[in-house]
Amino acid sequence: MLPSTVRFAVLYLVAIAAGQLTILGMPDAMPVIWPATAVAAVWLVNRNDSRWRWVDATVLGVLTAVALAATGMDIGLALLHGGTATLEALAFAVAAVRWMPGIWVTGAGPEGTGRPLATLPDLVRALMVATGAAFLGAAFGGLGQHLIAGDPSLTVTAIWLIRDVVSVLVFGAAAHRLLAVPSDQRVWREAAIIYAISAAAYFYVFSVNEDLPIGFALLAITVWAALRLPTALTIGHVMVFGTTAAVFTMHGQGPYAAIDHDSPGTHTLVVQLFIGVLALVGLALAFSRDERNALIERLRASEFEATEKAGLMTTIVNSMTEGLAILDQAGGLVLRNPAAGRLLGSTNQVAGGSALGSDYGFFHPDGAPLADAELPYQRALAGEDVQPMDVLIRNAAVPEGRIVRFNVARLASPGGQQHVVVVFHDVTADRRHRDELMSFAGMVAHDLLNPLTTIEGWAEVLETELAGYKPAERVGRIQRAAARMRTFLNGLLAYTAARDGKLMPTTINLQLLLTDIANSRHDQAESNRTQPPQFAFGQLDAVEADPVLVRQLLENLIDNALELAAPGVAPQLSVAAQPAPNGMVRIDILDNGLGIPPGMRQAIFTNFHQGEGQGGSGLELAVCKRIVERHGGTIEAAANPYGSGTRMTFTLPAGRSAYARVLENQWQQRTQAAAPSSPAAHPR
Q1: Which residues span the membrane (predicted)?
Q2: d(C-alpha 495, C-alpha 248), whole Å
Q3: Which end of the chain is more exposed for a tag (fewer CB within 10 A), N or C?
């Protein structure tokens, strides 16, 4: 602390001595320039967080009083000026820490960066803080001087106020900028020219033609310097030529020296205003230029970085083996990479504005035409959550056909327009390989049924002949193994049929179909002497689908729910339907079983997946998924929202025939007739 205090004290004394050299008129008049105010402000701002700040403030006041007394000032006025300087510096430091954080601070800590005045907001805040502190000092000092010296003039108070504000703006702006002097020789050459022209102009205005009041013309040179020179040299220009104006005026030369000879304080006030205008104009223009240059540099850096990233992104996108396309709200192509063009069977160049529709030759994987409204990105633009979808592409460029998987995602731009990102992936080889395997599995399953039937037949013969003998138990094992084998083979055949069989859609009355399935499960439970399941059916809209496949779908889902029944608990199943978007019907099957773990709700629909304790081939739910997808729907498993168990949800096309409308009318009439007598219909 002590070395820093000593340095500030020495600098403060030098500033007082320099200020005393600018006294106009009588020896006890006010100095025109008073850099000591700026030094005191910077001094106490740096000491604001120190526990010794009051010691520094005291040293500041004592030095002021001693220095002024040494120059011949009355001891009472010297003490008054010392107290005023301390009060003003403390007020400035407190306000500056709040309104100008980090300015001039050179100590340790997060704010110890020594940031100088550098922006227009900094200049405005410095002007406001300096004006407030100087007003406080001028009021206190003016009142004290009136009481001690009996001077009632308001001019002295105004001089005091303007002098201190200008001091903070000019000399405070110079703080922490001594190391920012440029080293460019071209800058120094231009600075030498501007300084030389300024010197000649000031000499002409204040000495050669001093009777003409044209001091305002010198402001243009300050504007020139502020626009062309670095801020440090601009501040130097204001300091040098502001002092020049004061020196000429102090020696009775220049347009301001002749103002009101009977009141010397008036020309002092005017020359201070002149210096203040120079400082404000020069600093405002210099700071504005610095901010503009910094902003331009940031923009250039951002542009360079954005260009580099855009180039890198373009290189990455163009080198992708997967296709990438961005579509606008109307379905037009905004951008696509070469891989997308190859996969879609079109040109590799980026196309803008052209629509990506069914004219590219889009079909369902089974060959059925795919309408524009069914395209995954069109559904995404319509607000749907679209799962990855396989599309068959066959056009002039791809006559043999190619199956491409579409992955889509919506993008919301800041302007509110919707865009869709589509990623294309060629899955032709994968699907062909999978189809070949499943076809082979279907053929093998079909071929194995004959020898399996033979095994089952001979096992029955052996069981009959060995009835009553112990080896008959081993024959039972053969029969159970054969039954498991038949279940597995039937599952393979069912999956093959669900995958390859031709769809024969018709209007299906789900009420009749589910009632028949429920009756069969009741009969099966009675024959097995197990608890019969309880079924509850809600509204069941008609669907347009293949009746054989839909029966298999419902039977597999119901059997899966019965297998997951909790021990000792009667199975309860609830089935209901409701309209879904895009002409579909959503069907929910809820059970009260053990439920499916959250991490397994997607895996249960994969081939050969078997849960713990479940029988079957592991293809039952995979068959369900295949049936639903062949009808253009989706299927998912979730927790039962009304208790334990699972909710299976799938969609099928809504019935479009007159029979479907009749069924819907019958349901509505039945609901209306049952409503008055139903307690649940009138909740209280």
Answers
A1: 29-45, 57-79, 85-105, 126-148, 154-175, 187-206, 269-288
A2: 106
A3: C
In this structure, what token pair is assigned to residue 245? Answer: 């104006």
CB burial of residue 677 (10 Å; 0-12, 13-18, 19+): exposed
SS3 584: strand
pLDDT, residue 419, reads 85
**CA gap 90, 93 in Å, rounded:** 5
Average pLDDT over residues 547-557: 85
Output the 3-class SS for 614-657.
CCCCCCHHHHHHHHHHHCCCCEEEEECCCCCCEEEEEEEEECCC
Q: How far is CA 482 from CA 148, 453, 479, in A?
A: 123, 9, 5
Model confidence at 183, pLDDT cuts 50, 70, 90, reads: confident
Q: Can you tell me the distance from the alpha carbon of 509 to that of 152, in angstroms, rounded to the nearest whole number?
A: 108
Average pLDDT over residues 365-380: 80
Specify whether the CB–CB gap between 171 and 34 falls below 8 A: no
Residues 532-558 have a mean pLDDT of 88
Cβ(120)–Cβ(291) below 8 Å: yes
Average the pLDDT over 57-84 and give the result. 86
Average pLDDT over residues 183-194: 88
Residue 323: closest CA among 393, 237, 254: 393
- Listed in sequence order, the DSSP H helices in 466-606 are 472-500, 510-528, 547-563
- Specify whether the CB–CB gap between 312 and 336 falls below 8 A: no
Separation in Å, CA 134 to CA 57, 67, 157, 164: 16, 20, 10, 6
CA trace torsion 99, 101, 103, 106 (10° rounding): 140
Instruction: Please check whether residue 582 is in contact with residue 457, taking contact to mean a CB–CB distance below 8 angstroms.
Output: no
> Residue 153: which pLDDT band, with cuts at 50, 70 and 90?
low
pLDDT at 178 over 80: no
Residue-level length of the chain: 684
Angle (CA) 376-379-383 rounded to 5° is 135
CA–CA distances in Å: residue 507 to residues 103, 283, 417, 532, 667: 81, 85, 40, 30, 16
| Structure tokens belonging to residue 660 | 């479907």
Distance (Å, whole) CA 439 – CA 495: 10
pLDDT over threshold 90, residue 152: no
- Check whether 675 has a pLDDT greater than 60: no
Span 643-657, pLDDT tens digits = 889 999 999 998 876
Segment of 162-171, 223-232, 320-329 carrying the highest mean pLDDT: 223-232
Distances (CA, A) of 559 to 313, 368, 590: 51, 31, 12
Tens digits of residue pLDDT in 429-486: 776 766 665 566 656 666 666 677 777 777 777 777 777 676 766 777 777 777 766 6
> How large is the angle between the packed helices 53-70 and 2-20, nearest 10 degrees?
30
Q: Measured between alpha carbons, how far is 642 from 572 in angstroms, rounded to an integer? A: 12
Angle at 671 between CA 669 and CA 677, to 5 degrees: 115
What is the Cα gyration radius of the chain?
47
| Burial status of residue 150 (CB atoms within 10 A of its CB: 0-12, 13-18, 19 or more) | exposed
Taking CA 516 as the corner, what is the angle to CA 514 and CA 518, rounded to the nearest 5 degrees?
65
**Are residues 154 and 141 in contact, defined by beta-carbon separation less than 8 angstroms?**
no
User: How many Å apart are CA 335 and CA 268, to the nearest integer?
Assistant: 71
Beta bridge partners of 391: 404
DSSP 8-class letter at 676: T
How far is it, in rounded angstroms, from Cα 654 to Cα 585?
5
Question: Comparing 141-145, 511-515, 556-560, which segment has the lowest mean pLDDT?
Answer: 141-145
